[in-house]
Amino acid sequence: MNSAIQVVKRDGAKENFEQEKIARVLMAAGLERTKALGIATSVENWILKNGKSTLTSLQIKDRVLEELRLVDTNVANLFAWYEKTKE
Fold first, then answer.
1. pLDDT of 84
2. What pLDDT is stored for residue 67 in this prediction?
3. Bridge partners, residue 6, by sequence
């Protein structure tokens, strides 16, 4: 967990960024744990590389989907569908 990174949720609430949350959602969509953790790490590295300390959950979701499409198209489609049901 990187508490230096804040995530602004849809309702405006803020919480600390957690790699593990991303990994859990990806595993629920059908991705194996090592790949899910790899994507979560890539997303965190992308955030740190860009020097951002606050992002919206939508920005993170979009980056997760981008990374996921490179790893597993089927799981990416399931993830996108699931996220759409939450809108």
1. 81
2. 94
3. 16, 54
What φ, ψ does residue 85 adopt, rounded to 5°?
-70, -20
Counted domains in the chain: 1
Nearest 10 degrees: Cα torsion 34, 65, 71, 76: 100
Q: pTM above the 0.90 mark?
A: no
Measure Cα distances from 9 to 12, 32, 74 in Å.
5, 26, 26
| Residues 54/6, Cβ–Cβ less than 8 Å | yes
Which residues of the chain fall short of a pLDDT of 50? none
Q: What is the CATH number of the domain that holds 43?
A: 1.10.40
CA distance 61 to 44: 12
